[in-house]
Amino acid sequence: MRRIAMPERPDWRQKAEAYGFPFHTAGGSVYWDETVAWSFTLAEIEDGIEAPTGEIEQLCLAFVEEALTKPATMTRLGVPDTFHGFVRESWSRGDRNLYGRLDLAYDGAGPAKLLEYNADTPTSLFEAAVFQWSWLEDQIAAGKLPKEADQFNSLHERLVQAFGLIREGARFLLHCAAVEDSVEDMATLAYIADCARQAGHQTKVMGIGAIGVTAEGQFVGADDEPIETLFKLYPWEWLFREAFAAHLPRSRTQFIEPPWKALLSTKALLPFLWEMAPNHPNLLPAFFADDPRAASLGDHVEKPVHSREGANIRIVQGGREVQATDGDYGGERIVQALAPTARFPGGHAVIGSWLVASQPAGIGIREDQGLVTRDAARFVPHVIEG
After folding, report:
1. Sign of the torsion angle spanned by Cα atoms 195, 367, 47, 55
2. What span, in angstroms and rounded, lies between the C-alpha atoms of 282 and 118?
3. pTM confidence score
């Protein structure tokens, strides 16, 4: 695993716009950065990232099975008591999940360590699935990479395939909703809708605020059309707090991601996984902040159980705080042992390892100057060369 300098494609910005990737540059700073790339051997990908990703996912699914029998665990994972049955029924029905992203600390030496699981509303999907693949093809065509160069990236094909199985192969109308004022979320939503259409479904894209509810508790779109299947780029912990939340269990809407994913889309998962599989090679010691065992950790990270884009994180090394980020997330916190990430002059890189229908499907890499991967962290492509 090594970081290599690469020549930029002269027209990459125009291509990004044409591909539907408007947030390639944010606030004057480059988000997509192709002046560098990370190069892997096939063994590093298959043994160091892909295999651990699959193993962690199986561990998480086993944990869901166990957590559903323990109301106290479900509550601590952020599911209000009134929605326990709603989540259990989703799992019992076999509601299919679509995708998720494990954030891993991996430097080529291994083993990869799970930092957190973005199981419900992960972004950076389009750039991982589509734009970095176009980068690879262009760089091979330009002779900047060898013809045999490859990428760990079957995301697009697997997403289309997974959409074909959501309702056991039946065709349906998929409503897709996100927060309208987020350029990144709406671009991600447009990509998800495109994958669904390629699987043969019809789609309607809208803002989350356009969703209404009938007197009978059925969710409807802006045209009062019943929403039978909804892809929501809006996290379950927010939905549970909405005024219309009481209608969720009786809405007859199939949600993507399904309600049972709420048990995995919180950093509260990390202490439970460590308790379930202590000393697992791909897990880090983690405890709730009020657990006396948290004090036994040396270098560590403190995180809110619900936060995004690296907000409200505190890192302690050698007994002193070395980095702290601001943000609007409070509430319960967890403490996790600090893991070494891939380093390069001036920063650190985190591997985002993607799953589609619970199968490893590709990676995306984010770089930041500090130890915390923030919302402005750069996305850089990768290549398999050996």
Report:
1. negative
2. 16
3. 0.96
